[in-house]
Amino acid sequence: MALIRYTASADTTIANAFQSNLNIRASGSNMGASDILEVFSVYGRETTSSQELSRVLIKFPVTDISTDRTNSIIPASGSVSFYLRLFNAEHSKTVPEDFTLMVRPVAQSWQEGVGLDLEDYKDVTKGLPGANWMSASNAAVWTSSAGEVGGSYLTGTSDPTFKGTFSTGLENLEINVTPLVEHWIAGTISNNGFGIHLTSSQEALFSGSDGLNSGSVLNNTGGAETSYYTKRFFARGTQYFFSQPLIEARWNSSVKDDRGDFMYSSSLAPPSENLNTIYLYNYVRGQLTNIPAINTTGSILVSLYSGSATNTSPSGSKLLLYDGNTNLTGGYVSTGIYSCSVATTAASTPVKTLFDVWHSGSIEFFTGSITPSVLSASSAPAKPTYYLNITNLRDRYRRNETVRFNVYIRNKNWSPTIYNKATATTETTTIHSASFRTYRILDAHEAVPYGTGSDLHTVLSYGVSGNYFDFDMSLLESGYVYGFKFAFYDAALSSWTEQPYIFKFRVEDYGY
To answer: pLDDT by residue (tens digit) across 46-81?
Structure first.
């Protein structure tokens, strides 16, 4: 699993809406301590052409993201995606439909403030800390080339801008904001957070006589003569754990180690499927450690030798491999982990054991064994059903744990002989495209949905012992029971098929 969540470090709503008396605007009010964020546009409430707007400012701890990258917790730029996620807050008021929210970088620093009142806008800053419609802080007004109120935003052609579209108005906001987050990490754009508001064509129309902003009202000659009232999200102060505003870092960290599912090259398979990727894991005193002679940039060579089930070491000459050589060059994956793609054709009588020797010059680092199989076609379509089990599942976990779960999978209709039952270890079936989700049993809330899109951040790894995945328990709220569910990709159906098994566990904060 490759998912890290960063909760907002500051957020607030700023508005120029009228108070209930329709005489005083909320342009000096702050809502930084509210548990709700609000975006709306109201046209023609005070007069037939009045404009009332609300916008959201939200900031995230990019220094934490940068530190995680420095410590190799998240990968380098280009190998990870960042998503802004805000969660819909249900309310009793009207919800707009068919609208678009703009998400832009804020151009200057601002203060969150401690205001709470989103109804009557009574928490006026009056020089106290907190951003409002007119000012970014108690010491600075909003500044831009247009002298804009309602926030200052980067709107140049090279500045990252994002859009979120809403049909029913009840949707959550989820946008890939990777370009801007990478700018923040690199320091090429200052991290002043996101500004979120309706498009200019959906914010209310206002046309000043001189074509400029008028007091707290934005000049918007192409604006809407209809209202979009009101879209609400949960703010960082919400009591609901899974509704906090997030930036999610997602990437595919799955390991595809074919050592346990190694196949001889066959004319039945496309060339890419004839390659088997095998791994070397270098543990020193229980910790993955780079091989000094190889480190991160040197080359490591891999050779294959034939053998038998009774052999304990390679013998004879190196096998000729798919590129016509006897040595293949492996590569560095991450600390202490190296991989190599290997292909070889079976002899007329396929050997039952192959030995892979990892070396550099005259130094041999590791010798492993492989039990290869020969691909064969079938006279009938496959309709597999599977039995699943998490072999090391406990009934409870602490929130500070990251756990590796081993998933045993076999064909449900497997029927071994009595001899096999008595003498052999049950073989596991490796699923090459498997994903998991996690949900709260109490109300079926999706804590971690399937990540089967472009990022594949919930895809299972596999190795010599079958499928497995890592899970960070801090993603879950303590005090509840959760369940894992699994889905396998069915190429014949071009879709994912969820398996009928649930694996339950509880998350606690205290030791046990």
So the answer is: 888 899 999 999 999 999 999 999 999 999 999 999
375 in a structural domain: no
Last residue of some domain: 250, 282, 299? 250
Which tokens is 111 given? 């203060």
Confidence of residue 271 (pLDDT cuts 50, 70, 90): confident
Q: Do 119 and 33 share a domain, yes or no?
A: yes
Other Cβ atoms closer than 10 A to 413: 10
Q: Identify the residue with better confidence: 418 or 261.
A: 261
Whichever domain contains 454, its CATH number is: 2.60.40
Between CA 237 and CA 36 the distance in angstroms is 8
Measured in degrees and rounded to the nearest 5, phi and psi for residue 280 equal: -120, 130
> What's the pLDDT score for residue 441?
98
Contact 55, 195 (CB under 8 A): yes
Domain boundary among 370, 401, 421: 370
425 confidence band (pLDDT: 50, 70, 90): low
Phi, psi of 179 (to 5 degrees): -55, -40
Q: Could you give the CA distance from residue 234 to residue 11 in angstroms, rounded to a whole number?
A: 10
**To 5 degrees, how large is the angle CA 483–CA 176–CA 31?**
85
- If DSSP codes are grouped into helix, strand and coil, which group holds residue 20? coil
Provide the whole-model pTM: 0.92
What is the DSSP secondary structure assignment for residue 221, as one 8-state letter?
Answer: T
- Pick 148 or 186 by higher pLDDT: 186
Range of the domain at 482: 386-508
Burial 375-384 (b: 16+ CB within 10 A, else e): eeeeeeeeee
Domain count, the chain: 3
Residues 40 and 101 sit within 8 Å (Cβ to Cβ): no
- Residue 211's pLDDT band (boundaries 50, 70, 90)? low
Phi-psi label, residue 398: left if phi above 0, alpha if psi -120 to 50, beta otherwise: beta
